[in-house]
Design brief:
By secondary structure, the chain is of the alpha/beta class. The chain has a single domain, classed as 5-stranded Propeller (L-arginine/glycine Amidinotransferase, Chain A), CATH 3.75.10.10. The protein contains five helices and 15 strands. The strands form five sheets. It has a three-stranded mixed beta sheet, with helices on one face. Helix 1 links the parallel strand 1 and strand 2. The longest helix is centred in the first third of the chain and has 17 residues. It is globular and about 45 Å long. The structure holds arginine. The site of arginine has 17 residues, from loops. This is arginine deiminase. It catalyses: L-arginine + H2O = L-citrulline + NH4(+). Pathway: Amino-acid degradation; L-arginine degradation via ADI pathway; carbamoyl phosphate from L-arginine: step 1/2.
């Protein structure tokens, strides 16, 4: 069973990043974003932080799955968020921009075998030039927010409209480009709902903030330094609980989240963010809410 209708519905089943075999053969490493240019984290640190993260999820009653090892040519399996996304009761398998990520989805195929298919419920983009990554997609309150970013293109937005436009309101968002001095890799690096009515936002990352955001959410603003530490990239466990980094730049944001009545579990998580992804990136929710 898979299901996701809202970003903050209670998380029941999730795939988390695989740290085992990370960068096993550096010959295949590809520096895919700005963060990675300053060096890749050691596997020991990834192990410690991912095991702790996994324990927190398990203790919260979440079923945790880990991708299979694809092979040394996929050097990084830390951020499954981007390789697919559950939209309603369907699974969208993404076309990745970066070569080293293109076969990463093979690691999760065994978790897709049991998706019921009275109709084709696993959706694959038709065209190889249609790029969509899960980090650019966010489903909440009847909307699918989708960023046109470093990793998702207009063709991807059109594909979402075709496939899901009858059930969801598709809200395209243009992320500012690297050339404009903004490093927002994915939508979840600049926007993320939290609790029932609030959302974290890094406004400077947007070309324009859509009405579906300004009219609906109480906005908690993240500044540039906090954005660079991926302060928006929390993971919602439910409407009343999130997981966030204990990083000094994230702590003021965590306090603002607490003021909205949401519990924040802070954990040490520095290694994965050094590769460009924090808690949201390092997770792919398969089931949220009551089925
Ligand atoms: N949803 C996200 N923000 N994902 C971050 C992905 C980081 C990953 N190393 C990449 O560059 O592709």
């Amino acid at each position: 069973m898979i299901q996701q209708h809202s970003e903050t519905d209670t998380l029941q089943k999730v795939i988390i990043g695989r740290y085992e075999n990370y960068n096993e053969s550096p010959a295949y490493a590809e520096l895919v974003n700005e963060e990675q240019k300053t060096g890749l984290p050691p596997r020991e640190q990834l192990k410690e932080e991912f095991e702790n993260f996994r324990n927190v999820l398990t203790e919260a009653g979440v079923e945790v799955l880990v991708p299979d090892y694809v092979g040394k040519f996929v050097y990084d399996q830390l951020t499954p968020r981007d390789i697919g996304v559950v939209i309603g009761e369907k699974f969208l398998l993404c076309n990745m921009v970066k070569r080293s990520r293109r076969y990463e989805s093979a690691g999760i195929f065994r978790y897709l075998h049991h998706i019921p298919d009275s109709e084709p419920n696993i959706i694959i983009p038709d065209s190889p030039t249609c790029f969509i990554e899960g980090g650019d997609i966010l489903i909440d309150k009847g909307n699918i927010f989708v960023a046109v970013s470093q990793r998702t293109n207009q063709e991807g937005v059109e594909f979402l409209k075709e496939q899901f436009g009858d059930v969801f309101n598709i809200v395209p968002i243009k992320a500012r480009a690297l050339a404009e001095g903004e490093n927002v890799l994915h939508l979840d690096c600049m926007f993320n709902p939290v609790g029932e009515k609030a959302a974290l936002i890094y406004e400077e990352g947007f070309e324009a903030v859509p009405r579906e955001i300004t009219d609906v959410y109480e906005l908690i603003k993240v500044d540039k330094a906090q954005q660079q530490e991926l302060a928006t990239n929390i993971l919602s466990l439910s409407q009343d609980k999130v997981i966030s980094r204990d990083h000094p730049l994230c702590k003021p944001i965590n306090d603002m989240i607490r003021k909205t009545g949401v519990e924040v579990v802070e954990i040490k998580f520095d290694a994965a963010p050094a590769t460009g992804g924090s808690f949201r990136c390092c997770t792919l929710p398969l089931l949220r809410g009551q089925y």
